[in-house]
Amino acid sequence: MATNFWSSSHYKRWIVDRATLHQARYYDLQYADSPEHLGFLNIFFANLISKLGKKLQLRQRVIATATVFFRRFYVKNSYCETDPFIVIAACCYVAAKAEEAPVAIRSVVTEARTLFGDEYGIKTFPSDNSKLAEMEFYLVDELECDLTVFHPYRTLVTLCGKEGGVSLPQAEAGEADADDSDGPRYWGTGEGKLELQEGALQMAWYGLPYCPSPQAQDAQAPVRFIINDTYRSELCLLYSPHLIAIAAIYLTLVFHAPTRASIQQPASSAPSHSGSSHHSHSGSPTRRSSRSTTHSQKKQQQPQDVIGFMAGLNVSMTLVATIAQEIISLYALWDRYSEDVHADSARSSFLHKSGSASGGTRRGGVKAGRSASVVSSGTITSGNTPSTQDDSAQNEIVTPMSLVQLLLRMREQRMTDLAHPPSGRPVAVNKMLERTQAAG
Amino acid sequence: MDHNLLVSDPMRLYRAKRDSARKRVTDKYTILGFISSGTYGRVYKAQSKDVDGRIHAIKKFKPDKEGDVVTYTGISQSAIREIALNREITHENVVALKEVILEDKSIYMVFEYAEHDFLQVIHHHSQTLRQSISVAVLKSLTYQLLNGLLYLHDAHIIHRDLKPANILITSSGVVKIGDLGLARLTHQPLMPLVAGDKVVVTIWYRAPELLLGAKHYNKAVDIWAVGCVMAELASLRPIFKGEEAKLDSKKNVPFQKDQLLKIFEILGTPSEREWPKVKDLPEYDGMKRLDHYSNRLQEWCQSRMPNGAQLLKELFAYDPDKRLTAGEALQHRWFREEPLPTRNAFVSLSAERVPPHRRITQDDAPSMMPLGAGGSHVQGQVSQMQATAQAHLSQQLSHSHSNQSGKAGSAASFASVSGGGGPSRKKARLG
Question: Which residues form the Protein kinase domain (chain B) (predicted)?
């Protein structure tokens, strides 16, 4: 099972189509300000899971699993009829167990209460452990007990080898370590490994553009992860993880300037990047066999056939291009989202790029700025330029606080409508509530 | 519409909706009787109310209690593990999970039913028939066990608790590995295996690297257990029947001197030549202080399983790296010699030699299953549970006693009865 994606519950039961997702958001669409806001909610919830996960010191893979659980839960439920905050906490709690790195229920309750209460003004999160345990019970039921999740990280490591001297930072090592010799790529053909330059693999892992120069790092502190970023959308429900990984690699090849240059001008005239603000390891990517040669030699010898490598993967490149397109669309949307939680709705039209002291805040500001430059930099090739947003929409900046307000509004309206249906036959809801009250 | 209610508990409506849609265990199954119990909960025999009327084993995890009130305290790691793994696997030689039902704060796992298990077969031969298991049966059981294990290992699952009570056999003689409650995925673990469960595998079946405190271990621990099980099938008693040294008050894992001695008495003291890494293990110094023994496995096998001696020797390789893998073991010459292993392990047996059906008890079983829904029953249910739990406890004690004195039949267990045998059969679980 661990190796056979095709016989997994993930593949058999949890890859859904767009129509299903659309149906799943049926009620939410009626109460949301616009369909676009549901996209912002996708980003917002994933960020919340990530934040809570970091407070609980969960590894990236656990956070990713928690996010997939959350998405799966909402294939069957509506935001406006549930409390996403307790669902988020339960997802983190179950994911930690499912990934064999359990955390105490008490710490989940405590951290969630603090995070949701202090930063988002959610005061309803229960202090009682049993309420979270109860939610876990319902969550596991909704997940149909399918708790084993596949992630693109593994494909990335399988395809882009870590043995070539590429080191992933400590925090992510958990995803890359262990016996990869045991885990062949599960969709069949394709030979060898693509050896990406150090910066490039980190870009695929971390997001683009990864910029290691010290000054830039200071200013742009937290790097973003392309694969991690995909969890801010519903891609994990729509596509197999290996396709998402290949799309992330593809985007890296396209966006990573030195790599792109080397693809476009193989070997002969590879430019020197030693002085650029990008990576010092900017030689043309080569097969692992030539690792021992120096950088300058590498540039002249055996340029890696990146295009051939990608073409050799037995996957639908049309599909990969579609996923890449969706990732870019996500970045376009994300561009208009600011994590500055202290901006109230009245001020939310001003983007606080400078940010405040908190990491999340600074990150949000930077993120918006940076992905804007990515999208508008004109480096996107192969016809993947995203459709340009219309100007009026561009100006609205969405903040977590505005989304929290939206959520509460959606739920309240939904409850009101349930209690007073247009048919004039009211309150099936109340009957149900009476029943639960009776049942304790 | 009571908005205050929704503010204080926004998920109330959601739960009401889910609860009303949920099919209950008793809607779908008729409980036929009680099979066994263990630390995790209880197992029942049940018949589907579908037209097929199939028989199942339903494993009910013990509900959590705070005082007398059943409450939610979080699903145990072991239940999550067993559920998650079982949802992904399908193999003829691994017990199939049909469904999981969550209701009334309890988890029910519905498994395919198996009429027998290895422990019961062993008891049947030692107590009733008073003769050894035929080579044909022994070989078929071992082969199918290895076949199921090969599947699990290929899927990167280490079972970690193989023992006769956990290995089931259907009435048509097909082996089914059960109880994945201690099993876990080893593909890309986020934490070392040792960090999760300090002690794995019932002591008699525990591999020497575990006994010597290895921090890293792998699939080879299951292979050792297969060796122990195979030897037990051949001799009708555990081959290494040591006394477990108990955890101290600080839950430190003690040096398992007696168990190691039991192993050394037959396999000899391991040498650094055959197991170079042994000197790096934490308990190596303790091992050095023990008396020295030489290998007499050949002699042990002579009377019990002359032709299987070579396979057993290779399953019992001290060095985990040299121990056979499940795949290699299946390729062993022994399995290609007459009599060949059969898909129905009992095919060569006359009807009276096939072990008897699993015993179920009628009395306390139906009452254990919640009859109605709802909280009003909870209180009654709880007190009933306590009564039956107590009754069961005494029953279990006498059971294990008679087991050891060698008079009773099988301590039949289904899908993991860790409390199946005497106290020493129990595994210690930490964390």
Answer: 29-335
> Mind listing the pLDDT tens digit for each residue in A337-394?
887 644 443 333 333 333 333 333 333 333 433 333 333 333 333 333 344 444 455 5
| Domain locations in chain B as residue ranges | 116-353
Q: Is B280 a catalytic residue?
A: no
Put simply, the answer to whether A148 touches B102 (Cβ < 8 Å) is no
Q: Which chain A residues have a beta carbon less than 8 Å from that of B78?
A: none
CATH topology of domain A14-142: Cyclin A; domain 1 (1.10.472)
Residue of B nearest to A408 (CA): B7
Residues of chain A with CATH 1.10.472.10: 14-142
Q: Which two tokens stand for residue A243?
A: 């396709």
Residue of A nearest to B152 (CA): A1
Classify residue B338 by burial, with Cβ atoms within 10 Å: 0-12, 13-18, 19+. Answer: exposed
ipTM of the complex: 0.77
Chain B contact set for A144 (CB, 8 A): 87
> Which of A141, A144, A433 is opposite residue B13, by nearest beta carbon?
A433
Interface test mutation site (partner A, options B159, B186, B190, max chain A beta carbons within 10 A): B190
DSSP secondary structure, B114-179, as one string: -SEEHHHHHHIIIIII-SPPPHHHHHHHHHHHHHHHHHHHHTTEE-----GGGEEE-TTS-EEE--
Show Cβ contacts of residue A425 under 8 Å, excluding neighbours closer than 6 positions.
Answer: none
CATH number, domain B116-353, options 1.10.510.10, 1.20.1250.20, 3.40.718.10, 1.10.1740.10: 1.10.510.10
Q: Is the peptide bond before A209 cis (omega within 30 degrees of 0)?
A: yes
